[in-house]
Design brief:
single chain, about 150 residues, mainly beta, Thiol Ester Dehydrase, Chain A, two-stranded antiparallel ribbon, 1 helix, about 15% helix, about 45% strand, globular
Amino acid sequence: MKSGVDIQNYLPHRAPMLMVDLILDIDANYVETIFLIQEDNVFIDNGTFIEAGLIENTAQTCSSIVGKKYFFSEDGTENENVHVIGFISAIKNLKIHELPKVGNTIITKARLISKFIGDDYTLCTMSCESVLEDRTLLECEINLFIQQTISVR
């Protein structure tokens, strides 16, 4: 299990679309991330982190489990020049209980339910929850599709 890992090692996302600061805990079936909501975030409306931001934070958290397959070899060395695309293929049982505010730090947890690995793509289903202190913000099941692409120069 790894702790305190920069999410950018596992995702292609960069500012301003990066919605996770740090991976707190990760293994083959579980990931936990942390995210401080800044005032200049693209998903802020009147001081509130909107629903789309919570969903993107959740998707990026989930993607880190799958993304490590592409960015790191089995012996733990980093793969160079890896390019992936990914998208949410489905969201099920989405419940948003509360929206956090600027300055709040949220924790998002995801557990792998199922995964199918093809030659250059992965499909997975994950159970997710975002929390602020002891309050649940979001809970859902999310399906992701992630595919390694060929870099064109």
